[in-house]
Each structure stands twice: as C-alpha cells, then as structure tokens.
Amino acid sequence: MTDIGVIGGAGYVGLVTGVGxxxxxxxxxxQDIDQRRLEMLRRGNSAVYEEGxxxxxxxxxxxxxxxxxxxxxxxxxxxxxxxxxxxxxxxADGAADLAQVISVAEQLRDEIQQYTVVVVKxxxxxxxxxxxxxxxxxxxxxxxxxxxxxxxxxxxxxxGLIDFFAPSRIIVGSTSVRALKVLxxxxxPLLNGNVVVDVPWIHSGPxxxxxxxDPTSAQLTKYAANAYLATRISFINEIAGISEKVxxxxxxxxxxxxxxxxxxPGYLKPGIGxxxxxxxxxxxxxxxxxxxxxxxxxxxNGVLQRNKLQMREVMNKIVGALGPSLYxxxxxxxxxxxxxxxxxxxxxxxxxxxxxxRDQGASVVGHDLLAVDEAKELEPExxxxxxxxxxxxxxxxxxxxxxxxxxxxxxWSAVGIGGTADRPPHVIDTRxxxxxxxxxxxxxxxxxxxxxx
Length: 453
Ligand SMILES: NC(=O)c1ccc[n+]([C@@H]2O[C@H](COP(=O)([O-])OP(=O)(O)OC[C@H]3O[C@@H](n4cnc5c(N)ncnc54)[C@H](O)[C@@H]3O)[C@@H](O)[C@H]2O)c1
Hints:
By secondary structure, the protein is of the alpha/beta class. Helices cover about 45% and strands about 15% of the residues. The chain folds into two domains: about 210 residues, 3-Layer(aba) Sandwich (Rossmann fold), CATH 3.40.50; about 240 residues, 3-Layer(aba) Sandwich (Rossmann fold). It is built from 17 helices and 14 strands. The strands form three sheets. A six-stranded parallel beta sheet has the order 3-2-1-4-5-6, with helices on both faces. A six-stranded parallel beta sheet has the order 11-10-9-12-13-14. α5 runs parallel beside α6 and α9 packs parallel to α12. The structure holds nicotinamide-adenine-dinucleotide (NAD).
C-alpha cells in the first residue's frame, strides 16, 4: 500500500486515477482547487460523468481509501507518490500551456520533505519532465529527495474507469530505477487483477502490457496516439467527402474498410470532426513541437486542415436545406457534448456549430442525455433539453452530431408526414446513426455525410 496524492484529483483524469489507485488498495488523497467538484465528491457524487464511477467511489469513501481536499501542502507532505493531473490547455500558438504544471511543481519544490516520486499524468510535450526536474532542483536533490516520472493517460472519457481497470497498456517513462520500482509496486495489484472493492470490469484477459521507457518516448507515445486517432478521423472524413461526390455509401465503405485486420473498425466514423479536450489540442501541441525542432509535419497540418473544413461541410448542408438566410429558422442539434457518453462540452464542435448558427440569427435547440447543464453553463442562451421529442418539435432542420443510441431509436412518425408537425424537418445525419428506413417511410428528406441518398 502506497500513500498517493493526486493533484487535480477532481478532474476527468485525476478522479479516474485517484479512484482507480484507491481501488487497488492504496491510500489516496485527491487534491483540487475546484471547491464545487470537491464538495460533490465528498458526498460520493461526481461532477464529471464516468460510467460506473459513483458506486465505486462510495465504497472507497466508506473504507477511508480515498479523501478529497483542497489542501495541497498536506497532500504533498503525506504522499510517497504524487500524480499530477492538472490541465494543459492550448496556448494561442498551439503549444501546450504548462502554467498549471509549473505552478504545482513550484509548490512541490517548497513542500516535499521525504523522497517522493512525482508522476506526470497530464499530457505534456517532450521536455516538460526536464522542466519539472529543474523547478524541483532549485531546492531539492534529484534521485535523493525526488524523481519525476512520465505516466501518460490513455483513457476515453465516459469509459475512463473501464480503461483504468482493463488498460490497453501502461506506459511509464523514467531514467530512475528507484522511481520505476515505486511505479511498478503501485500498479502491481492491477497487473495481478487485485482490487479491494467491487469493480465490474477488472482485467481478466491476457497480461496488461507494462512498458518502461525513457520520459521522452513516454510523452511522445501519448502525442503519437492522439495524432493517429485524429488522423483516422480526418482520413475517413475525407473519404466521406469523396464518396458523397461520386455516389458511394459511407456506411458500407466504413464497414468494408474496418474488416481489414491491418486497419480495424475503430475511429473510422465520419462526422463534424474531432473536438473535445484532447485530440485537437494535442495535435496542435505536436505540430508546434515539431516546428520548434525544425521539422515540417506536413501530414499533421493536413489532418488539422481537413478538420477545420468539416464544419463547413455540415453548414453547407444546412444552408442547402434552408437557403442562405438562417434568420429565425428552427434548427435542432442532437448531441451537445464533444461525443456521446460524456458530459464534457469543452471544445465541442456541436457548441461551435451552435455559435455559428446563432450568429446567423437561427433559433437553435439542442439535445443531450448528459451534458445539458454543462452546455447551458457554457452558453446560457442555448435552449437545450434531455427530451428528444421536445427538441424535434417544430424543427425545420435536425442535425445528428453524436452517435447516441437513442437517436437511432427515434420514432420519426411524430414529426414526419402524417405526424403532429406542420411540415417534416430536413434531417442531416453526420454520424450515419439514424434509421433511414424510418425517415423514408415518414416522408422525411435527409442527407447522410458521405452518402448520396
Ligand atoms: N480528458 C481526457 O479524456 C484526457 C485523457 C488523457 C489525458 N488527458 C490529459 O490530462 C490532463 C487533465 O485533463 P482533464 O480532462 O482531466 O482536465 P480537467 O480540467 O477535468 O481536470 C484538471 C483539474 O485540475 C485542477 N487544477 C488546476 N490547477 C490546479 C492546482 N494548481 N492544484 C490542484 N488542482 C488544480 C482543476 O480544478 C481540475 O479539476 C490534461 O493534460 C489532458 O490533456 C485528458
């Protein structure tokens, strides 16, 4: 059992990390500056949505396995290992903003009193581990008072805990044998499938790959993973664009493509593009890192460029349906979070689309199962509801933006010909999720991104 502090412990990554490590039997202090999130967490409620999180969290709180605090000094002094999971947003030039990480490092420099392993979970560009070592070295001795380890996070929001307990891999980067040993001890229960509370998805398959490497490779592996996922999305969006021009059916193309074992089906659905808190930000940071090192990342610039154009594809379809003036036209957006299964609206392209439509005078209404409050917090004027029927009522255009199963199950008879609506809406399906037979049989016209009818 290790005493572990998680700095940024109320965020998406910090909370999953804290809960996961506590479930492995470690004693975790999750520290954060967000009082609202901390207050909720102490009551066993999470402000960030993660499947299955709250029941595990409550078991851990009852067992005193995890606690939540805003006291950073006490957290630092009472921990043998400190996981840093604060934000690393984009600066205007695309580089990662390391202000939160550096501010935490300065606090560690002043408060560490015993040998502590500092584990950087936040996604940070190559070189950041050296920056953290430099800050700490102003007062402390590396190797004696502290070591710094890179341990990038690969979770998918919404299924973060599943990814913690059954990870595709664990990557740990350090030049310190002592620190690597501490990390392996921390993850040992997970590698052996041992947890102290009831966890439905504890890994039971083949061994979890545990990769020990140098900090540079660990950090670059994370950026490479996100750049690759972004590339797949821009790739399939570009194929969808070509398919639409030449009369293809993107659903069949995606299926046929994904059957190739060298390619696989994941991250191959067309859509409005990649938004959210990671892919865009991390791709930009990688492009900046390449530029700083005199390398021209032509392919990644293309990936970003395709992503920017994707919003225009969707706007063109809306204008195609309604004509050039969107003034007071009623448009329904299905899906406000940056993807299905999460309440995270940070850098959601649905919100960006809402802003573009609102700025043209359109009357926009949004639907989401999990993110209505978060969307309204970001955009107080946005009309939004969890009731899909209410959102569809009176809409002239409906745009499906997320692959939520309830969108596939919509009963279109209420808004189609013969239904209660004055006129059926035109439907734009960016994700290939809707039931086209039901649309057709109810006399509803539609566009599918990447297909012709
Ligand atoms: N969200 C994801 O899906 C995901 C996946 C992998 C990696 N990451 C990376 O993990 C990092 C965190 O992302 P997130 O999505 O969890 O962000 P988040 O905003 O949800 O969490 C960050 C938390 O840090 C807290 N914080 C900020 N400054 C602090 C300080 N000085 N002391 C204590 N707490 C502080 C914030 O209050 C917040 O709760 C980022 O680098 C991100 O790129 C995110």
